[in-house]
Amino acid sequence: MKRTARTASLTRNQTTAPLRETRDPSRPEGRDTPLDRPWHNPLRYIKPSGDPNLTMILQHCVSIYGKAAGFYRDLAPAAESVQISQCWAELSANLLRIREGWERVLRAGEEGTLAVKIENPHELGISLHEIDSELDVLLGHKESARNVRDAFYLAYVLECCLLSPAIGKLLHSIQDLPLRSVSETTYDNHLLTFVREFGNYTGSDVFSRALVRSLRHLRDHTRAILDRSKIDDASGVYSRKGLRNAIVPLANLAQRNRYTVGIMMISVDNIYTLYDTLGSLQGDKTVRALAAAIKRLVRRSDIVGRYDQGVFHVYFSQVKHPFLEHVARQVLAAVKPVLPQDLRLDFSIGCSYGRLERSMEVQLEELFRKAEDCLQRARLSTTHKILVE
């Protein structure tokens, strides 16, 4: 079924509209729709610039990890031995690093540099609030721990709270985590430390082993939620967040070896014409075919992702200017045969390249911004649809 112009316009508005109560003045009072109640809209894009709802959700995460770190920190002075005290201090330090990562995510949200797609944000906010409240109750019980075994059982409850699917869903919803926050917001290293120490101090009885297995199963469930966010369903290539996560180790390698890396942004300038003409199902099939055509032209060591509805990104690990321009021309020649014969779409390509000699994260962000600037100029040009700088 073809989408109408009104539907396409509505979809475009959903990608930019703040998550606040809005009302169409043309609609009679008292007869609103789910779009008038955005907190209850099951699928919603948020424009995060100062949005109080997103800020509240992210503040809960900062609070949750801060309280968890404080729980372990307060146990350290009263520990029965230096070894146990060091164990509590290490667990507290791990969670403080994660909290710092969430603080950076919060600042990015407040500054409007974070793209978020939340399913059921109202439900997510309630779940995070409940976790925050549960930690308050748990902190009140830590004085009742009579020995290290009791303390670890309380800590087990805390770790179950931190493994809540609600936190995993929030990470799944954030489309482009700031690169410096990606490693801090991962929980794996902390959990491995806790499981090791939990086994050391609670014994190896059947009950303790069952608790450890349950904790690992819960972690696997949360990890599965995060894994689903790495691939864009429509195109079959990396999503925005998956692309950035995949780039980090390659960028570190490029920095160590002083490689010149490249960023290519490929834009389907009138993507909404595609969906208006073909409909959602056939439109997604065409987008998948476009992504496949791009992947065939790049090397296996390069990474392709769908950054936005009509924009693909490619990260090149080792390139030169002529190579980028050559690949860009090949891309323009390869994508047009994929389209139906009666459908005309405009394509623009912007590229940047350079060495990551200082801070990898900062320079990589600069390359992304430079490629985006080239893409915008290519879009505006009627003669030069490829710009490489």
Question: What would you say this structure looks like, in words?
Answer:
By secondary structure, this protein is of the alpha+beta class. The protein folds into two domains: 45-228, Ferritin, core subunit, four-helix bundle (Ferritin); 240-388, Reverse transcriptase/Diguanylate cyclase domain (Alpha-Beta Plaits), CATH 3.30.70.270. Helix content is 60%, strand content 11%. Strands 4-5-3-6-7 form a five-stranded mixed β-sheet, sandwiched between helices. The model is unreliable at 1-50 (pLDDT under 50).
CATH class of the largest domain: Mainly Alpha
Kindly state the mean pLDDT as a whole number? 76
Strands of the biggest beta sheet: in what spatial order? 4-5-3-6-7
Please tell me what the overall shape is: elongated
Which architecture name of the largest domain does CATH use? Up-down Bundle
For CATH, the homologous superfamily of the largest domain is named as Ferritin, core subunit, four-helix bundle
* Number of E strands: 7
